[in-house]
Every structure is written in structure tokens, then in C-alpha cells.
């Protein structure tokens, strides 16, 4: 079943929606604080996460690999952004990672981008995303009544 053309939607439809990563292309950043960031880099994050999810889901790997896989898919520009040497050209290819902080979903630029603000990171937003998307324990907002 995973080799059927319809399996592609497993990644593009289900996984990207489940992880709420379809919105990465809409992310706006503070151009004053991050002048090196670009729409092309943002697009590279989307390609990376798409190829990564395909590699896990369509190759029928253990779901634990979503969090522990020691590889990703990079082109030269994204590799330079991550500080990874010896990746040349525009073509994305599978690269084994040495930095454990880049392993799995939590090390992917699309996830880090989606769980931050345009001018800073947000451990609270990232933690809520992990609880909601990975643990299935959606956090309810508590309203205080004064």
C-alpha cells in the first residue's frame, strides 16, 4: 500500500496537517533581527520536513524514528544555515547528522520555525506544540476571573 501513488497524500495531507506544518510558508520574520533569513530558506525548511516525513512514513520505518532519526535532507543553502559542511548544490540529499540536537522532528527547521515568533524563540509555544501534536494532550487555556 505504501508504494501506491495515493500514499503520497499520507505525508502531504495527513502528516503535515497533523503536525500543523502547512503554515510554515506563511511565517514572517523580523528582517531587522534576522537579515540572513529569506523566503528561500523558509521554503527549504518545508522541503526538508516533507522529505523527512516521506522517508519515515513511506519507507515504513518505526514511528519512533520521527523523534530519533539521525539524518535529514539538505541542499547547500540549508546545510550552511545549519553549519553542516560538504553539502554542495541545490539538490536535496539525505545527510547523516552528527549534532543530536538536529535529530528527528524537533531538530527540523520547519518545526523550530513554526513553534517560534518572528523575533524570538518561544519555549512555551514549542512545549505546547509537543504536548498537543506529539503527546496528544492538548493544553486548554485557563482564563482567570478577577
Description of the structure:
It is a single chain. The chain is 40% helix and 5% strand. It is mainly α and 146 residues long. The chain has one domain. The chain has a two-stranded antiparallel sheet. Helix 1 crosses helix 2. The mean pLDDT is 87.
| Main sheet record | 2 strands, antiparallel
Q: What is the CA-CA span between the terminal residues?
A: 56 Å
Helix content: 40-55%
H-E order = HHHEHEHH
Assign an overall shape: globular
Tell me the strand percentage band.
5-15%
Unreliable parts: none
Question: How are the strands of the biggest sheet laid out side by side?
Answer: 1-2
In the residues, how many domains can be counted? 1
DSSP helix count? 6
By secondary-structure content and strand pairing, the structural class works out as mainly alpha
Average residue pLDDT: 87
Give me some keywords for this one.
single chain, about 150 residues, mainly alpha, two-stranded antiparallel ribbon
Brief account:
40% of the residues lie in helices and 5% in strands.
List the topology elements:
Layout (H helix, E strand, L loop, with lengths): L7 H11 L20 H19 L7 H4 L2 E4 L1 H7 L10 E4 L12 H6 L8 H12 L12
Antiparallel strand pairs: 1-2
Amino acid at each position: 500500500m505504501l508504494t501506491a501513488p495515493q500514499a503520497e497524500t499520507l505525508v502531504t495531507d495527513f502528516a503535515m496537517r497533523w503536525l500543523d506544518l502547512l503554515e510554515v510558508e506563511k511565517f514572517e520574520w523580523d528582517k531587522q533581527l534576522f537579515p540572513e533569513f529569506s523566503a528561500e530558506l523558509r521554503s527549504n525548511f518545508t522541503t526538508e520536513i516533507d522529505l523527512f516525513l516521506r522517508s519515515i512514513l513511506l519507507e515504513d520505518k518505526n514511528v519512533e524514528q520521527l523523534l530519533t532519526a539521525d539524518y535529514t535532507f539538505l541542499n547547500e543553502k540549508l546545510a550552511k544555515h545549519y553549519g553542516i559542511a560538504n553539502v554542495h548544490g541545490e539538490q536535496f540529499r539525505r545527510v547523516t547528522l552528527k549534532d543530536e540536537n538536529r535529530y528527528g522532528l524537533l531538530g527540523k527547521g520547519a518545526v523550530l520555525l513554526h513553534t517560534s515568533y518572528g523575533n524570538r524563540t518561544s519555549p512555551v509555544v514549542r512545549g505546547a506544540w509537543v504536548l498537543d501534536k506529539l503527546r496528544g494532550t492538548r493544553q486548554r487555556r485557563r482564563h482567570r476571573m478577577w
